[in-house]
Each structure stands twice: as C-alpha cells, then as structure tokens.
Specification:
The chain is an alpha/beta fold. It has a domain of 248 residues: Spore Coat Polysaccharide Biosynthesis Protein SpsA, Chain A (Alpha-Beta Complex). It has 11 helices and 12 strands. The strands form 3 sheets. An 8-stranded mixed beta sheet has the order 3-2-1-4-8-6-11-5, sandwiched between helices. The radius of gyration is 23 Å and the shape is globular.
Length: 359
C-alpha cells in the first residue's frame, strides 16, 4: 500500500517542518505539496524535502485562495502520477494521529467497497506567547460538550480516501466525491490534532486569507465567519485574546479543556541533535523507508470513552452542518432558476418590442 499526503501551505514556516516529519514517520510514503506565495521560509523547507525525494512541489502564484481546486489537483496527481492507493488531504496545521498502530494499518482494515474513512478534528487552543515552538506551548485541547457549542474552533469531520483520478475535494478537505463512491461513516479510527491559531501574528495573517476568500463568496457567507469579521472590523487582537487560555484552564460555556502532550512528546523524540544540521529550517529526523519511527499505543478505556463522546457531538454537528449546506445549495439553485426565468422574460419582452417596432 502506498499512502500519499497532499499539503497546501502559505507562510507556515513555524509548523510545516514538524507536520511533514510527523506524517512521514507515521506511515505517509510521499507528499504532493502546493506552496502559495510563501514569504517566510516555507518554500525553502518544502524545497528541501523535495530535494531529498520525499515531496513533489507545485508553486501556485495566484493571489486569491482556491483551496478546493488546488487540493483536487494534488489529489488527482497522487492517483495518476505517484502511485497512491490512499490519499490524505492535510493542512499544514493538522497532525493525523492513528489510534493505535500506523496510518497504513488502519487503512488496510477498510473493506474494499468503501472509498473513504472519517477522521475527527480535535482542536488545540491558543496559549500565551513565548519563545518555545507551537508544540511546546500548545498543550491544551478543547473538549466540546454540545453540538452547537459557542466556539469558533469547531469539531468537524475530515476524510482520507482511496486514490481516484476523478476525485473532487470539497472546501476544507471535509468531503470528497466521485461517481460510485461509497462513504464509510460512523467509524473514526484517526484523530486530527489541529493547531489552527498559534500566535497573534499568525492568526491575523491566516484570517486575512479567509477574509479575502469569504468576501469573494457573498456578504452572508462572510458574516458567518467570526474570525473574518474580526479582521474586517479591526478586532483581531480582541478575537485572539478571547480564545487564549492559560495553564490554569477553567471550563467555558459549551466546552471544557484537557492537557494533551502527545504531539509535543513525539516531536521531542524526532528532534535531531543540535550537532546535526538538516538545513533550510528543518530539525526533525525521518524514518528508514517503510519503517515508521513511532507507533501510538492503543487508547486507554477512559480515553476511548472520551473520544466516543466527542464523536457523538461531532456527528450531531456534522448532521446539522450538512442540512444547512443542502439548504444553502437549494437556495442557490432556486436563485439561479429565478435569474434564468427573468432573463428569458426580459429577452422575450425585448423581442416583442423589436417585432412591434418593425411592424
């Protein structure tokens, strides 16, 4: 089995080396990456992995974010050019953690007729700034207690899929589609450790990209994105502070918090000795080909119970979101039909007037 990861990055130098090294040690064989106008050293890190044979790099010069199209392009390349059996579409701030064994072991258990496997997003919250890396600082994870918890760090599904030359990847990599796809739901053998907001500066930059994207969609879409609205109104610092928690975490309405040091501990084990320079901002060791460097232990009974609870919350929210998406799509189609009807009416009116004038 060959597992290929796709990665879309723009100015992610603080995390992209850790992200790549983690997944290459967890069972990913190769990476197809797109760098979109990075200026902070991200490009050089990706180029270094490409020179070492771990990565194929696409330079995307477009200013306007088009995530679905760019990730779809990479996912199709993984199938057609790089021999993938399975494709994992990841963001630079995501760490796909297999719940026991390696990613490949989990995917090998999937019955042939299913084309996807679901993963559960688990969000780590911002913590006070310091000189340490994001993984050393961000060790507090949010635990949502209800499907509609009032928090912008939402619990969501992610998906890993069998390689397919005609795959279409949806916005946010939350879904894929192709003709005849059978989606496996209700089983979440992979969790995605998510470090979306890592510093005030990074938060402002990230939300600025999304402001441009949502602003290009519609005013209604933009108003539903609290982070993008905060950028538009000049309240990013206030927004970021509202999400930040200290070490003395306390429960919040709709959510609680737990200490989770798993990623920190793994990255510590992968960090190379100071005397070994990897170059281009890289600091993590990579495995011997075909031999993952770490194998997560099976979850304890208490962890399994907590995870099941989050799956219940996530599944409930996923159902709500999908209904909302279907209603929005129906509304867009209806609006399109109405515009078409009125266009035809106006065209016929103009034609009638032209014929009347000619007569």
């Amino acid at each position: 089995m060959k597992l290929v990861m796709t990665l879309l990055a723009r100015n992610e130098a603080d995390i992209v080396d850790a992200q790549l090294a983690f997944h290459l040690n967890a069972g990913v064989d190769f990476v197809v990456a797109t760098d979109n106008r990075s200026e902070d050293g991200t490009t050089e890190i990706l180029e270094s992995y490409a020179r070492d044979g771990y990565l194929h790099l696409i330079h995307e010069p477009a200013e306007q974010l088009d995530q679905p199209a760019w990730v779809t392009r990479m996912a199709r390349l993984a199938a057609t050019d790089f021999g993938a059996d399975w494709v994992l579409n990841a963001d630079a701030d995501e760490f796909w953690w297999p719940r026991g064994g390696s990613l490949k072991e989990i995917l090998a258990e999937v019955p042939e007729r299913f084309g996807t496997v679901r993963a559960l997003l688990r969000n780590f919250v911002p913590q006070p700034a310091g000189g340490d890396s994001f993984a050393e600082r961000m060790t507090v994870r949010e635990v949502p207690l209800e499907a509609e918890a009032p928090t912008p760090l939402r619990i969501q599904d992610k998906v890993v899929h069998r390689a397919n030359a005609y795959v279409e990847v949806a916005l946010g990599n939350h879904d894929v589609s192709w003709e005849g796809l059978v989606d496996l739901r209700g089983w979440y053998p992979i969790e995605v450790l998510h470090f979306a907001l890592r510093s005030l500066e990074q938060c402002e930059r990230k939300l600025g990209y999304w402001l441009a994207y949502w602003g290009s969609q519609s005013p209604e879409e933009l108003d539903r994105q609290p982070g993008a609205v905060a950028v538009r109104e000049g309240r990013v610092e206030e927004y970021y502070a509202s999400l930040t928690v200290g070490d003395d975490v306390e429960g919040a309405s709709g959510a609680s918090f737990v200490l989770d040091t798993r990623l920190r501990d793994v990255l510590r084990s992968l960090q190379c000795d100071q005397g070994r320079a990897l170059g281009a901002g890289r600091q993590y060791l990579l495995p011997t080909k075909g031999a993952p460097a770490f194998w997560p232990d099976p979850p304890s009974l208490s962890d399994a119970a907590a995870y099941a609870s989050e799956i219940t919350v996530g599944s409930a929210r996923d159902s709500v979101v999908k209904v909302e998406e279907r209603l929005e799509e129906a509304g867009r189609r209806l609006a399109g039909l109405e515009r078409g009807i009125w266009s035809r009416v106006r065209a016929r009116t103009r034609l009638s007037r032209t014929l009347a004038s000619a007569a």
